[in-house]
Amino acid sequence: MPPETDISRRRRISAPKSSAMASSCSLITIWCFLLAFVCPVPSAAVPAVNRTRNQWITAHLKRVNKPAVKMIKAVPSPDGDVIDCVPSHLQPAFDHPKLRGQKPLDPPERPRGYNRSSAANDVKLQAWTISGESCPEGTVPIRRTTPGDVLRASSLRLFGRKPAGVRLRRDSTSSGHEHAVGYAMGDQYYGAKASLSVWAPRVTIGSEFSLSQIWVISGSFGNDLNTIEAGWQVSPQLYGDGRPRFFTYWTTDAYQETGCYNLLCSGFVQTNNKIAIGAAISPTSALNAGQFDIDLLVWKDPKHGHWWLEFGPGLLVGYWPTFLFSHLAEHANMVQFGGEIVNTQSSGFHTSTQMGSGHFAEEGFRRAAYFRNLQLVDWDNSLIPLANLRLLADHPNCYSIQGGVNRVWGNYFYYGGPGRNVRCP
DSSP assignment of 86-107, as one string? Predict the structure, then answer.
């Protein structure tokens, strides 16, 4: 059980086959432009393929990197990100036909029972803001996408997206994705809120990741699955490093053709000039030392039907327009909180990629990662305690979960683990 006093000490913020591939390369398809270095192409054709590949990469970067009125190089920060301050109406969302020519909406009414922190405008939650940087009013901070970011992807089509075949079914055969989650299902949900600790788990290879997030889910677990996702993740393939970064995701067809991470496609509309989606979170929790957590709130605006996201103590980040979705245009029928990793078994055995802090739930406070103060948003736009929380770990010998309820933390759980160990071969 976590201690029931001294909350301020726990938080530092107030508040293909080769022949087929050769054929593809002879046709010089977009997919092989990015994979030319693994395609069996005649040596004389390599320069031409590389030139064309680079042209497609350049064109793609022009689409995702919008003209900025200000560029911020995070020199004091070890992440080395470049943040572009892009006029709000020019951000990627407004490339969507249904948003073209529009501007971001005004903030909606927050759910009843939620107290916004008075420190929201002064708090520093990301590495690029440590020196006091922010973007001007009327702009949004966007992490600049680099050629390296694109080249790390398995293909241009999959850049910024989860691979098709990812499922949220809770079984041991789910495409190498393993979870330790708390969830509620079977009712109509209009949002979710929680505080989650931030760590920097070790990810073994670039094609794996480790994350901690909230899922807001609707539809069946077939091709019509709708999800809204937000939290922090360590993803070397997506970001090129091992730092925990604030991220968002959405899909309306079970990750097949729609949706993306962050602002890498048209969809999520950002309204905040102080938070960069995809940027590193700072500080992080330390083993047997200070614990740092962030608040996340996702809720459906009852007036317009859009799904809004709040990060940290009252920082409204933006919204997913309701037209992006089918089932979530109405409501969610499942909410999940917790951790996820990818286990590629690249060496023939279970990955050593860590979840959470890399320590099991049973180790408790200051050692295991946690979610606390789990709440739901009901039909009346009110925050309510989460009752009947169900806990599930796909592989408890690799990553475990353990929950409870108390006066200070409300509904909470610890989760995570080291991956491969004597009980998880």
Answer: EEGGGSGGGGSTTTTT--PPPP
Report the C-alpha gap between 157 and 258 in whole angstroms. 11
Q: Which of the residue ranges 8-22, 123-137, 162-176, 408-422 has the most confident prediction, judged by mean pLDDT?
A: 408-422
- The pLDDT mean for the chain works out to 85
Report the distance separating Cα 114 and Cα 378, nearest Å.
13
Identified catalytic residue from 229, 257, 330, 363: 229
d(CA 277, CA 233): 11
Contact (CB, 8 A) for 389 and 183: yes
Q: Give the pLDDT confidence score for residue 303 in this predicted structure.
A: 93
Q: Is 257 among the catalytic positions?
A: no
Kindly report the number of other CB atoms within 10 A of residue 380's CB atom: 10
* 3-class secondary structure, 314: coil
Comparing 54 with 340, the larger pLDDT belongs to 340
- In the DSSP assignment, the letter for residue 282 is -
Can you read off the two tokens belonging to residue 318?
A: 């933006």
CA separation (Å) from 237 to 20, 92, 130, 149, 158? 26, 22, 25, 7, 12
Catalytic residue check, 310:
no
- Domains in the chain (CATH in brackets) are 7-15+146-416 (2.60.120.200)
pTM comes to 0.85
Position with higher pLDDT, 240 vs 118: 240
- Reported as a single tens digit per residue, the pLDDT across 17-63 is 333 333 333 333 333 333 333 344 444 454 555 667 778 788 888 88
Q: Find the farthest-apart pair of alpha carbons in the chain and give their distance in angstroms, rounded.
A: 71
Measure Cα distances from 63 to 30, 94, 158 in Å: 16, 12, 15
